[in-house]
Amino acid sequence: MQLHELVDAVTGDEPPMTRTADDIVAAGRRAQRRRRAGFASAGVAGLVVVAVAGAFTLPTLGAGQRTTAAPPPAGVAAAGPAEARWADAPPFTFTFKGYDAGPLHVQDPIVASVGYQIASVYSDGHISNDKPVTADETEARGDEIEQKKRATGGKPSLWAYLTVYRPGVFDPAGIRNGRKVTVAGHKAVQATLPVGLDPSKPVDEGNKLLAWEYAPDAWAAVTSISGSVTSPSFQDLGGLVGGLKPSRPKPATVPFTVGYVPAGYRPLQSGTHAMPGLSGIAAARAGDFGGATYTRPAAPTSGLSAPYDATENGIKDGFHIFVTPGSSSNQSPEPGVTKCYPGSDRPVPGGDAAGGGFCNIWNADGSVVLQVSGMGLGNKLPVAELKKIAQGIRVADVRNESTWTPAAQALRP
Contact 342/283 with Cβ under 8 angstroms? Predict the structure, then answer.
């Protein structure tokens, strides 16, 4: 799926009934849309996501909570404001928590990688469709409901993300048509983005990006794809700058450990209570348990101006691991069974190389499915290798986070 197709999906009025992670993963602008046999496309959400360089914390779903410092003892003068310092945290670590900024509400981050962490941002004045709807709801909310919503002036959709980049990873010069500004005392760059984030299309005034330097050589960026031209405004997005503060670093965790990874493949990004990458943000409230993306060769850790799966050259060859509820699939559960499906036999012109495919393993009662997928990532592994990866994975208790493992450890055999 091309990035502009993902944007079209997440900003639609309603997500599809069910989803598979691979159908919504933004695997690069050259990746071809592919449908896996027996699977429906993923449900995604209109939301705000922000990217920030260098910081990471253990995520929980829902809006972050503010804390208020206790007043100083009687007779003791209050100390002046101290600049919060960002820890030198390793990759796959969360170092900030959710916060509010006017009408915008940054959530705790749920995606981590070798270069950044990502959090959803919601808005009081917009609809965020980041969870699937049931078949009954889909039928009930047909054209008649949509017409009614438009007639009553329903809220516009919004999809966006906050990415916090590690120091040295983000290059503001890579923002097309960026304009240098200063926001809350921070160096910043703002730009209006093209339709569907497709560089071949004209700009859409509802699509905005604001990036700022939150610490020396460390940048954060918020991307906002809105159904409204006027909101969020750049002024609204600028309110996020002052609210971004470091928290105590905590590792991003995943509900599985790998036992076998083919030579040359390296972990790129993970999702905690989410699929990895932008697909995890697009379906942030879908109830997924976790996932990871691997790439070959190792991805660059400098020169980025967008997340890995939102760039032309982000992922050349890779595969995903997804741990999701069995109800996420349109296929009937096959408890205890490993079942694989082949990809293409030959390269697709202008798209994926030969390879791809995916393998599913259901747990004993069919409530959880593990999937290893090479589709949509230019994957060159044969299905036999995907099956070997899947059979080497050990899934923890998905509902007991004390059994989960830090991603930096879990993703290496």
Answer: no
Judge if 310 and 235 occupy the same domain: no
pLDDT for 314 equals 62
Partners of 186 in the β-ladder: 183
Residue 11, both tokens: 């900003």
Q: Are residues 245 and 262 in the same domain?
A: no
DSSP assignment, residue 334? -
Q: Looking at the DSSP assignment, which residues form a beta bridge with residue 170? A: 304
Which of 9-18, 146-155, 384-393, 404-413 is predicted with the least confidence, judged by mean pLDDT? 9-18
Residue 76, domain member (yes or no): no
**Token pair listed for 168:** 């040295």
Please indicate, yes or no, if residue 81 is contained in any of the structural domains.
no
Beta carbons of 91 and 114 less than 8 angstroms apart? yes
Token pair 């999701």 is found at 324
Report the mean per-residue pLDDT for the chain.
78
Q: What are 13's two structure tokens? A: 């009025």
Is 33 within 8 Å of 1 (Cβ atoms)? Answer: yes
Residues 6+ apart with CB under 8 A from 95: 54, 55, 56, 57, 86, 87, 89, 117, 164, 246, 247, 249
Burial class of residue 336 in the structure, from the number of CB atoms within 10 Å of its CB (0-12 exposed, 13-18 middle, 19+ buried)? exposed
Torsion of CA 166, 61, 274, 95, to 10 degrees: 20
Helix and strand counts by DSSP (H, E) for the chain: 8, 22
Q: Burial, 271: exposed, middle or buried (Cβ in 10 Å; 0-12, 13-18, 19+)?
A: buried
Q: Within 10 A of 229 (CB to CB), how many other CB atoms are there?
A: 12
DSSP string, 63-95: B-----PPPPPTT-PPPPP-------PPSSEEE
Cα 254 from Cα 404, distance rounded (Å): 6
Nearest residue to 340 via CA among 325, 319, 309 = 319
Three-class secondary structure of residue 147 per DSSP: helix
**Does 242 fall in a domain?**
yes
Q: Do 102 and 244 have their domain in common?
A: yes
User: Is 181 found in the same domain as 136?
Assistant: yes
Look up the domain containing 369 and give its range: 252-410
pLDDT at 193 > cutoff 80: yes
